[in-house]
Amino acid sequence: MEIDKLKEIAQKVETSRSQIQNEQATKTAFIMPFLQAWGYDVFNPMEVHPEYSADLTGLKGEKVDYAICLDNQPIILMECKSCHQNLEHPKHSSQLHRYFIATGAKFGVLTNGIIYRFYTDTVKDNIMDDKPFFEFNILDFDESSVNELKRFSKSSTSTSDFNSGKIKEAARNLLYTKEVKKVIAQQLNDPSPEFVKFFVSHVYSGVRTASVVEKFTEIIKRSLKEYINDIIKEKFEEVFRKEPEPNPADTAAEDTPPEETGGDGINTTLEELEGFYIIKSILREEIHTARIQFKDTRSYFGINLDGKVTKTVCRLRFHEKTGKKSISIPDNVETGKEATTNINSLDEIYGVAEFLKSRIRYLTQDTYKSKSEKTESI
């Protein structure tokens, strides 16, 4: 299963989702290509059986959208909804629940062509769990989630080594891991008294009264977040140390005007570094990312080409106290004006990706010209 194929599907979902009107169109445009990327032959009904019968006693005419079969037996059921439907509605999972019991399949997938929720029977045999053990989002995936997805690809299910019992055990571990993470997230945001008492017992020798626990609640909440931020920041800095220096041949000597940087009052935040890496990932198709650098100031976080403030790509303004965020991109003429976009989350930086690419192309136009001139002279 190749990540590039999944990326192609993701791009298709992004560009054509608004034009998809119903469930059948979602199947054709998004879900069938996903099954193909998974390695299955969607045109072979012995392998991918559409409208598979899933009748129960007293319930006739029940059919699941797709059944992936091995040796004429369904191993994965897939219930499909329109890409505009929310999978949270209880009736969607209850449908799959019935089909799961009727067919004897070991795994069920509920999808709207964007999110794929995987279920099995970790609690009671042949009874589908209420909670999915794994969720794959075609618009937001990484190598780790793709590796989990590969467990159910044709290359895995069609071999003699395929063992649904082992996968169920892995599913159980995934489910418990997800639940543990949820508990950790809850405790980080709103520590329970029991959680606070555990830490207080290690750092406070006095009587653990209600007022002491209340006092330590905020201290522990802040300490945990600072500890996590320190770890992440350390990882970022490690990446910085490993990044290659830009090729001197790609940069020209240029005077750099003074900028307000260094000294007291400047605190490079984790959010600013995350924004920086998002912008680097956007621009990697246009330029060697080592040339994209940052310079923090008291008033903004500047992202520049070759470390030169006269070649500003954009400026991030993230106000910690108010929570307001914005990204400003200079226009491609020497007016000094900036186009500023307010954002609610870092993901919204992707919404100005084309403007960032246009800006970097403008800043490197001399390089492109010189390269084309060399080509012509040859």
Structural summary, described in words:
With 378 residues, this protein is of the alpha+beta class. It is 43% helix and 18% strand. It has eleven helices and eleven strands. The protein has helices at residues 3-16, 23-37, 90-103, 143-150, 154-157, 164-189, 193-203, 210-242, 270-283, 353-363, 365-377; strands at residues 48-53, 63-70, 73-80, 107-111, 115-119, 134-137, 292-296, 301-305, 308-318, 325-330, 338-343. It has a six-stranded mixed β-sheet, with helices on both faces. Strands 7-8-9-10-11 form a five-stranded antiparallel β-sheet. A hairpin with a 3-residue loop joins strand 4 (107-111) and strand 5 (115-119). Helix 1 packs antiparallel against helix 2 and helix 7 (193-203) crosses helix 8 (210-242). The two termini are 43 Å apart.
Main sheet properties:
6 strands, mixed
**Helix and strand sequence:** HHEEEHEEEHHHHHHEEEEEHH
Helix content: 40-55%
Instruction: Compute the separation of the termini in Å.
Output: 43 Å
DSSP, total strands:
11
Overall spatial form: flat
Fraction of residues in β-strands:
15-25%
Number of helices: 11
Give the overall average pLDDT. Answer: 82
In short:
By secondary structure, the protein is of the alpha+beta class.
Annotate the secondary structure layout.
Elements: H1 3-16, H2 23-37, E1 48-53, E2 63-70, E3 73-80, H3 90-103, E4 107-111, E5 115-119, E6 134-137, H4 143-150, H5 154-157, H6 164-189, H7 193-203, H8 210-242, H9 270-283, E7 292-296, E8 301-305, E9 308-318, E10 325-330, E11 338-343, H10 353-363, H11 365-377
Parallel strand pairs: 3-4
Antiparallel strand pairs: 1-2, 2-3, 4-5, 5-6, 7-8, 8-9, 9-10, 10-11
Helix pairs in contact: 1-2, 7-8
